[in-house]
Amino acid sequence: MVIDVDRIPKDGLSVSRDFEFLNVDLVEEDTVFLSPAHAEAIVRKVGDEIWIKGRLTARLSFVCSRCLSPYEFPVDSTFDLVYLPEELDLMKDELEEDDLGQVFYRDNQVDLGEIILEQLNLTFPLKPLCAESCEGICAVCGKVRRNGDCSCEVKEEDPRLLKLKYFVRDKS
Ligand SMILES: [Zn+2]
Ligand SMILES: [Zn+2]
Question: What are the CA-CA distances from residue 105 to residues 5, 83, 86, 91, 129 (Å)?
C-alpha cells in the first residue's frame, strides 16, 4: 500500500486494513498466519516529515526450535515512526551519530505495507520457543519431553568432552 506523500490530508490519513505477506519476506519462514496481519495507523505529514503511529495485530503459528511443535504466537505491538525525506540522507555524514537511526522515504512515497512488514518482523523472537522451559525432544525415545511424556534418563554429554573421550580412546 503505497501512500503518496502529497496526498496525505491535513488531518492525517487513517488506515485500518489487513496486510498479506509472503513467507519468504518473513524472518521466520516456517510461520503460518492464523489470522492476517492487521494494522490500524494514522499517517501524518508534519513539514517534510512523515509520522506514522499505529498498532499491529496478528495471530501466527511458529515452529518451536527445540521440540519442533507448532505453537501460537500472538502479535500485538504499537509503533511510532518518523520518516524523513531522502534528500536529507545525502547529508547524513554531517549528522550526529545519534541521528543515524533515522529512516527515510523517497520519491515522495511511503510504502505502508513494507513498513508494517518490517514492524511485524521486529516482533519475531530470535529463537522461537513454545515455552521458555521447553525441554525439546528426548534423545533416547524421540518423544517431546513435556508433561512427563517420557521418563528416560538423559545424561547430558558435553560435545567437547565427547571429543576428548574419543581422543583418549584413539591413544590407547
Ligand atoms: Zn518446544
Ligand atoms: Zn524419552
Answer: 9, 6, 6, 14, 35
Q: How far is the CA of 133 from the centre of ligand 2 (A)?
A: 17
Question: How far does residue 127's CA lie from ligand 1's centre (Å)?
Answer: 11
From ligand 2's centre to the CA of 142, what distance in Å? Answer: 6
Which residue did the predictor score with more confidence, 134 or 90?
134
pLDDT digit string (tens) for 99-156? 556 788 989 999 999 999 999 999 999 999 999 989 898 888 888 887 666 778 756 6
The dihedral sign for the CA sequence 1, 82, 128, 158: positive
Report the candidate in 65, 69, 63 with the shortest Cα–Cα distance to residue 149. 69
- 0.85 exceeded by pTM: no
The residues with which 14 forms a beta bridge, in sequence order, are 42
Residue 108: CB atoms within 10 A of its CB come to 13
**Which residues have a beta carbon within 5 Å of ligand 1, which is an ion?**
64, 66-67, 130, 134
Give distance in angstroms: CA of 141 to centre of ligand 1: 16
> Of all residues in the chain, what percent carry a pLDDT higher than 70?
79
| Nearest ligand, measured from the Cα of 143 | 2
